[in-house]
Amino acid sequence: MSHEFYDILGVAREASADEIKKAYRKKAMELHPDRHGGDKAKEAEFKKLNEAYSTLSDPTKKSNY
Fold this sequence. Notes:
Layout: H1 5-9, H2 17-31, H3 40-57, H4 59-64
């Protein structure tokens, strides 16, 4: 993987599903494109955040990761 999903979300590898969800929501509020008026860098970070969350929130994808 080109990204370290745990680092993107700011959680430890041992984080529970609730901790992952809470970290995702907090970061999503900070990076959401609607809050930054078309800032392409923030939009790219938001996409990485979504990819990290979709992988770590799914038990099957998380085990493969």
